Amino acid sequence: MLLALNLRGTNMRKKIALITGGNSGLGFATAKKFCDENIITYIIGRTYDKTEKAQTQLGPNARSYILDLSELEKIPSAVKQIAEEAGGIDILVNNAGINMKKNFLEVEDQEFQSIIHTNLTSVFVITREVTKVMKEQNSGSIINISSMAAKYGIPKVVAYTASKAAIEGMTRSMAVDLAPYGIRVNCVAPGFIKTKMSSKALDSDPERKNKVLNRTPMAKLGDPEDIADTVFYYASNMSKFTTGTILCVDGGNSIGF
Question: What residue range is the signal peptide (predicted)?
């Protein structure tokens, strides 16, 4: 097992990670990878029971923290509390997000703004606050999660697409702004991954499932662990000279014909 250690003052401590939406799906898989690699991992979720259950499943390196990221005003104090409790923050994974499938002409202003608020604005706010901690350490790794929706046109998800395309642009901008402080910012763009949610959606729509698989050169869905391993790469010293990149983990879906 790779020990993830860092120096802070004269004391050695484990690395500290925050994962938004870490209580399910790709966030949970990433949290499991981090915990298995001996990283103290705060899983941030909105629902108490679900987040506490995830902490129990993940074991002694997991910490639960209940926070609704749409309540922007609560984010600064939450980050400060975690940093003080843990002794620092080394890794931030911006994984949480919401989606809505709806015909373009039927999307209401508030619905569009709600998705932008959660998927984009909250990412900016929590990253800004975590950066204040990382700047004092002169080190840190921030990993944003994008989507195939940022790569090509997917119908009926205009707000989600807008938010994820903006995440990729913001990744590049933040990477430039934060490099002088020793902070790296990268992005993972998952393809179609085998989760309970995606399996339910695709299994009930054979035409769409066939379209997904036919466009994917590797002709299969990815596993959540594929995303977790990639996020861990960005979080570790294996990528110490890498910043501002967007890595598709999609079996070739984004370049498939």
Answer: none
State which residues form the domain around 30: 12-192+223-249
Distance CA 45, CA 83 (A): 17
Tens-level pLDDT at each residue, the chain (257 residues):
444 433 333 346 799 999 999 999 999 999 999 999 999 999 999 999 999 999 999 999 999 999 999 999 999 999 999 999 999 999 999 999 999 999 999 999 999 999 999 999 999 999 999 999 999 999 999 999 999 999 999 999 999 999 999 999 999 999 999 999 999 999 999 999 998 878 777 888 889 899 999 999 999 999 999 999 999 999 999 999 999 999 999 999 999 98
For residue 195, give the amino acid letter: T
Residue 61 covered by a domain = yes
Residue 84 lies in a domain: yes
Assign 117 to helix, strand or coil: helix
Task: Please state the domain count of the chain.
Answer: 1
| Prediction pTM value | 0.93
Closest listed residue to residue 98, CA positions, set 134, 123, 135: 123
Q: Does residue 218 sit within a domain?
A: no
H or E, element range at 169:
helix 158-178
Active site amino acids:
160
Indicate which CATH number applies to the domain containing 176: 3.40.50.720
